Structure formats: structure tokens, C-alpha cells
Amino acid sequence: MFKVIFIVTGGRLENTQKNHPRGGDVHTADRPSPHHTLYPSRLPTAFLLVYSATTSAGGGFSDCLMQLVCIALGIVAALVISRLDYEFIASLWPFLAGVSVLLVLLTFTSLGYSVPGTDDQNWLEIPLGPKTFLFQPSELLKIAFIITFSFHLSRVREHINRPLTVLLLCAHGLFPALLVFAQGTTAPPPSSSAFSWG
Known about the structure:
3-stranded antiparallel beta sheet
């Protein structure tokens, strides 16, 4: 079984080779990646875009800084998750599904927040001292859906053409979509279909 694993170390791709637990070797590439020079060069542009969007929304430099910190934390989280075994991540599907659905359901409570100018209540307003933290649970729900649906497909691949299997797969996809639609049933199509196309 061959897989290409890219290990980012010091601006280049390190060459390693090891045995895969299921047999065969895991091969890696040994060449500099052009992305390592492209990504840093785009940081000033990314900063300007975040600053422009934040100030246009009425925020100040501190709000812009918070956005950049969140971006940095997201990158760190992505790097950590990329080092985890995908089978381990798949084994967490009950926890991921439960937490993501619970957070979406909380938007229908007093914690739910509707952005001014919209009629869909799809944010959680969490007070943190003098600041208020806004979190959109549907983003987490989309990630959980990818994991749970992939796991579902892997379990039924031997009889995926059976009508009952197809029906259950459709129900699996319909459930989270309906949750997101329920957050704003009268919202414009681009907003209400964010789960499907975002």
C-alpha cells in the first residue's frame, strides 16, 4: 500500500520511508515545495484582506488581531490533525457527531445569535469577559459530516447498491442539511444552502 506523506520541516519536504502497518512501504517525496515560498509571500495580502474586512464590519485593530490569532491557531490545529491516523479520527465519529449536532441545536436557544441584516440564527454568542465570542456550529457540523459519511460509506461499500443502503445514506446526508436549513428557512438561497455548497 503506497501513500505519499509530506512532512514539512524547515521549508522543504524531508525524505523518509517506513513500513505501513498493513504491509508495503510508505514513500515520501524529496523535493522542495514551491508552496513554502508562495505561502509566506501571501501573508501581507492576507493581513490586508482581514484588516479591510474587519474594519468594514466596524471592528478595530484588536478585532483584526483576534482574527489573525484564530487563523494561526487553525493552521496549528490542521498540522496536528494531519499527523493523526485517519482511522483514529474515524473512530471518534460518535463523539464528533454528537458534539456538532448539540452545538447546532444550541443555536435554537437563547445562546443563538442572528447577524444583523440576516434572518438566520446560526451563530452561538458566548460571552468571554468584556468580549463576546461568536462561533458558527454549522462549520463544525460540516467537518463531522465528512467524517461520519465517509465512515458510513466504508461500512456499506459491499452492498452500496441496495435500496435500503441508498435510503440510509440519503437520510444521513439529509439530517444535517435540514438542521442548517431550520436555522433560517426564509434566508436567501446562498445563505441557507451553505452546508451543501460552502
